[in-house]
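Help needed: design a sequence for this.
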C-alpha cells in the first residue's frame, strides 16, 4: 500500500480538521523547525462562550526571528488562566467530566518550557482520545537541506512517502510537478461537509478547538470528523 504522509506545524489545541488529516495518513510529521509567524494558529485557538467565540492565546512575545521549536513559554500563570476559561466555557458540557482528568494533567500537572513541546503533547493526547493510530514524528529527526518546497520534498523522500496529504491552502504555492518528479503524489484535503453537532451558544461554529467537539459529543466525536463520510449515524445512536 502507498505510504501517506502529512507534514504540518504544530498548533495550539487545533480544530477538528487538523485531526481529520492526521487520521487520513500513515505518518504525521510535526514541522516545527521552520519560521514562527505571529497571528497564525501556533499559540492560539478559539472556544465558544456565552458571549460568542473567544480566543485562548498563549503569550509568547512578538519576536518572529525564531523557529517554532525555539519559542519559549512564559511562567505557568497562562496555563491556570486557560484552564479556568475552559472550565467556565465547558464544565457543563455532557462529556467534559470524561476529558477533565486528561486536561487537568496537561494544564496543571507540569510546567511547559517550549511551545512546540506543549502543542505536540496535547495533539498526541487528543489523537489518543479519538482512537487515531497514526505514527507521529518530528521533522528534526531528519537531515534537511534547501528551502521551502525543496526542503519539504527532501523530508517526504526521507520518510518514504508515496502520497503527500496537504491542506487546501497550499494549492496557492505547491508545485505539484516538483513532487511528482520525486515520485510523490500530492492530494488536497477537503474540509467541506462537516456535520453540525450539539454545541453551546448558537449559532453553530466549526472553526473552534477540537475540545469543543469532544466535550459535546464524547465517544461520537470521530463520527463528526471522519466517520460521517462513511454514512450511518454516530455510534450510540
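Sure. Designed sequence:
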Amino acid at each position: 500500500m502507498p505510504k501517506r504522509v502529512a507534514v504540518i506545524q504544530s498548533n495550539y489545541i487545533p480544530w477538528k480538521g487538523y485531526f481529520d488529516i492526521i487520521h487520513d495518513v500513515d505518518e504525521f510529521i510535526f514541522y516545527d523547525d521552520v519560521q514562527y509567524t505571529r497571528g497564525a494558529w501556533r499559540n492560539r485557538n478559539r472556544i465558544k462562550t456565552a458571549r460568542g467565540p473567544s480566543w485562548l492565546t498563549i503569550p509568547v512575545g512578538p519576536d518572529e526571528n525564531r523557529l517554532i521549536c525555539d519559542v519559549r513559554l512564559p511562567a505557568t500563570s497562562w496555563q491556570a488562566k486557560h484552564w479556568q476559561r475552559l472550565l467556565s466555557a465547558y464544565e457543563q458540557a455532557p462529556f467534559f467530566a470524561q476529558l477533565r482528568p486528561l486536561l487537568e494533567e496537561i494544564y496543571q500537572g507540569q510546567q511547559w518550557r517550549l511551545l512546540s513541546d506543549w502543542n505536540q503533547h496535547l495533539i498526541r493526547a487528543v489523537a489518543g482520545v479519538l482512537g487515531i493510530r497514526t505514527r507521529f514524528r518530528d521533522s528534526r529527526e531528519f537531515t534537511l537541506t534547501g528551502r521551502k518546497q525543496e526542503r519539504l520534498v527532501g523530508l517526504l523522500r526521507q520518510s518514504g512517502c508515496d502520497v503527500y496529504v496537504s491542506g487546501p491552502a497550499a494549492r496557492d504555492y505547491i508545485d505539484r510537478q516538483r513532487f511528482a518528479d520525486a515520485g510523490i503524489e500530492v492530494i488536497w484535503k477537503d474540509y467541506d461537509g462537516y456535520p453540525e453537532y450539539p454545541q453551546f451558544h448558537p449559532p453553530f461554529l466549526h472553526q473552534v478547538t477540537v475540545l469543543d467537539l469532544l466535550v459535546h459529543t464524547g465517544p461520537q466525536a470521530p463520527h463528526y470528523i471522519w466517520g460521517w463520510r462513511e454514512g450511518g449515524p454516530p455510534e450510540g445512536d
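The two ends are 34 Å apart (CA to CA).
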